[in-house]
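Question: Send over one sample?
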Amino acid sequence: MATLDIDSRAAQLGIDWSQVHLDSIHLPPGENFGIESDDEGVYHDDQLEFDTGFGNIIVVDNLPTVAKVKFEKLETVLKKIYNQFGVIKENGLCMPVDPNTGLTFGYCFIEFNTPQEAQNAKEKTHGYKLDKSHIFSVNMFDDFDRLMNVKEEWEAPQTKPYVPGENLQKWLTDEKARDQLVIRSGPDTEVLWNDPRQKNTEPVHKRSYWTESYVQWSPLGTYLVTLHKQGAAVWGGADTFTRLMRYQHNMVKLVDFSPGEKYLVTYHSQEPSNPRDASKVEIKVFDVRTGRMMRDFKGSADEFSIGGPGGVAGASWPVFRWAGGKDDKYFAKLSKNTISVYETETFGLIDKKSIKVDNVVDMCWSPTDSIISLFVPEQGGGNQPAKVALVQIPSKVELRQKNLFSVSDCKMYWQSSGEYLAVKVDRYTKTKKSTYSGFELFRIKERDIPIEVLELDNKNDKIIAFAWEPKGHRFAVIHGDQPRPDVSFYTMKTTQHGGRVTKLGTLKAKQANALFWSPTGKYIILAGLKNFNGQLEFFNVDELETMATTEHFMATDIEWDPTGRYVATAVTSVHEMENGFTVWSFNGKLLYRVLKDHFFQLTWRPRPASFLSPEREENIAKNLKRYSRKYEAEDQDVSLQLSEQDREKRRALKEEWERWVMQWKSLYEEEKLERQNLRDGEISDEEEDDDEAKEVKEVEFEDVIDVTEEVVEE
């Protein structure tokens, strides 16, 4: 409908467009009433490209020539191969037959849903060896059309001027060394600067209905991903947040990046028509920069539901777990009795087969190396012990193994630098009626990977929380009985004890059930969430002293900024009151609060690792006072500026108030004669009272305070 038609229709209905705030209009979930979102038009245009032309068709040559009796068998083999790379359309595989001989010609056409799937299939199967005599030669159908229409006269290609793209790391060069965060409240998604000097946030980019589910930063902070009905999209930049790429995956529910941001994994599940059946799951792996789908995986939710910290529709998430480091070379999936490890060069299994581990229930990668830790529970009613093992990839060599007896459960915790692995082991008592907990501590970088056993002073204490110090050698444990458990700190490095694990100290009776280390170590928040109503204790582990004790009532989330200078606590919309977030300094000083209705997400923008060497960082830390003089002067200037701004604000408010009072006094006097005329010349009651109030009179009066009767005897 043209703009003129809309305006005329609005005039007929008596609607004033200037009074209509479109962002305030909320459609019911799942309905759009024919109104396209900003992205739907683009996806619609793309889909037109997919549905027209031949960009989604490949030609596979050098196939066996077979008779009609073997036609179906060859077709089944081809579908099994090519279904790994996309969805083949119905009747989308065509093998022409020679009418004279009844044999196939030795080639076929395969039509996929999208050009991306066809391109991926072509790249992955060109040169595929079906047998010694048949090696696939795969081309895009459009290539034949292009080659058949090559002009006989050569034309020099046009040189296009170079247009530099936006610097996706520009936000790291902020002169004030600030960090960004993204928040979501109601329909709005906002990217903000954290500006503690101004004691507030500074807007960067805001958009309503930017995503249909949630948003997520990539691990190094380069991209922000949004989810839509048609798929996922990534955005980048310092302040513009332009769309960089889209990834087609209808009704995508979850996404996950590889550590080096090279790949994006998307997840979709579909509920079955029969409640007894498992949900259908489809997972796709995309190249982040090109948008090309590298591989997809399909199956029932049961096939993807083993292990993992969390999930949706019965499947664990993330289904695929990436090896440590930034090369994004390997990723793995835990299945029944197997661990399937894929390499990203071909996106196939290493050695074309999975690692067989009977009854394996959990696995996780080292954060820095290609080492998998896995846990196998007891089998045969306790006759075969449980075990924790370390496996090197790609060699699949077992580096270390520890058998564990009378085990109820195990949970593995890697330290961020990959130097240590802590395994919390819950064991049955002799009576099997209760359990107790302890730790098996692996020193990964030392020769033969020695293992230490750590038991708490009271081994019957329940372990509530455990957390390694990032980039450090210490860890913290909350243990004991609620509501006031103890918090103990340990170190893996002490000269007095020959490198053995040593307890640094214990804090008694703390209102805490969660631990949040600063990303740089040294400082930790002992938090009491949920039933503890947001109790916060900021603790210096170097000095073993409390820096501040405070509270953010009903806090649901706590997240440090990537530099460890500031921390945000939030109350999301699971509570109806006080929705919003508070920013604190590392030592527990409240800097500012931001209240937002229907607030439900806050995430700091991650930073890539520093280019400084550990020696250089240590040198800067030693000479911090020299470097800090410049920033102290800047802080003082900002403080004076804020003080002056506050004074100006108070002065302006006072002047505004005085102007308002004078305005109403003037109006009151102007209307005095009119009021008298309305009352036939009589002064109003209020004015008479005002005149009487101006007269000061002295009035004497007597009051009887008390009366008593006394009998006087004569």
